[in-house]
Design goal:
- By secondary structure, the protein is mainly beta.
- Helices cover 7% and strands 35% of the residues.
- The protein has two helices and seven strands.
- Strand 1 (3-9) and strand 2 form a beta hairpin.
- The radius of gyration is 18 Å and the shape is globular.
Length: 138
Amino acid sequence: MASFTVVVGDPESGLAHQLEAEGQDANRFIGKELGEEVDGSAVGLDGYTLELTGGSDNAGRPHNETVAGSQLKEVLMKERQTGYKPDREGERRRITARGRELSDETAQINATIVARGDESVESLLGLESADDGDDADE
């Protein structure tokens, strides 16, 4: 059975939340491609919509949007992009990358929130502290 670490970026707060998707929830991600939108309920964010922005496999190889499917492929990279940062102008290097489709080989998925639900992210994840209004130190 598949399981993923899903890193969800919140553009409003600037925070990223590392969540787990296992079992049937993880199966919702298999077959999706980078750039697609998925329901946030798979990671406990009911009412939210997430856009898949990237990921990596178990060996740390990044998903690349230019590679079709979910297989590994060597890609000649000419400029700065995911998985490659050239040291000098004009440098090229062949890098092994995984395709843009998510599969059970994927270990980490990166996503960002594109549509919000009624509740805040913190309340859905149980991150709100009970004493937000109390200032006992004063």
